[in-house]
Amino acid sequence: MQQEQGEWVWKRRPERDNMKKTAIVTGGSRGIGFAIARQLGLDGYQIVILATTPFEKNQDNLMLLEEDGTPYHYVQGNIGEQEDRLRLVREAVEAFGGIHVLVNNAGVAPKVRTDLLEMTEESFDRVLSINTKGNMFLTQAVAKQMLTQPVEGKKWGTFPIARWGTPQDVADAVSVLCGDRFLYTTGNYIDVDGGFHIPRL
User: Fold this and answer.
1) Residue pLDDT tens, the chain, 201 long
2) Global pTM?
3) Is the peptide bond before 160 cis (omega within 30 degrees of 0)?
4) How far is the C-alpha of 1 from the C-alpha of 16, rounded, in Å?
């Protein structure tokens, strides 16, 4: 399925499954973003990928999603642009009926790395427009959509998580840390507190 409107193209393969949850992964066409998108697909999510490059340029990776049997929807756009952010949310809902997860993976580095004393305002504005402003306002748009949806599963669209913690919550975190899923993470910690720390951020 292909649709063209101006400079953007999107495709969806295969048809949506209303029993599955949907995850948006920005910058999800390659590298870390694609690894996240593919893993979430294997975990049972329908995937919406936002990338700045055309669908055709990423067909090799996207073919892997099809081989996995992962329903996905591809949107070409830039999180630094308000129109593209709102269109991403709109298309995700049109394609799969709702949004349950947002992974803000997309980001850019300066086009030219220079000394702090030589950095230009244009370079600074570009990086913050995408990495800070874009992610912030995409999160806002997705959160507004989530608030219109019925509560599903064990997690809630608002924080703090509205239930008492259980011993199993801590046990699950320990299990992940002791296993082989965090092999590239050192010297960090995980808050297992239902979001209690959020007001203090």
Assistant:
1) 444 443 444 455 556 566 789 999 999 999 999 999 999 999 999 999 999 999 999 999 999 999 999 999 999 999 999 999 999 999 999 999 999 999 999 999 898 889 889 999 999 999 999 999 999 999 999 999 998 998 776 655 755 777 778 889 889 988 888 888 888 888 778 888 888 777 665
2) 0.75
3) yes
4) 13
Give the amino acid at 12. R
DSSP characters for the chain? Answer: --EEETTEEEEEES---TTS-EEEEETTTSHHHHHHHHHHHHTT-EEEEEESS-GGGGHHHHHHHHHHT--EEEEE--TTSHHHHHHHHHHHHHHHS---EEE-------SS---GGG--HHHHHHHHIIIIIIHHHHHHHHHHHHHTSPP-SSS-SSSS-SS---HHHHHHHHHHHHTTS-TT--S-----STTTTGGG-
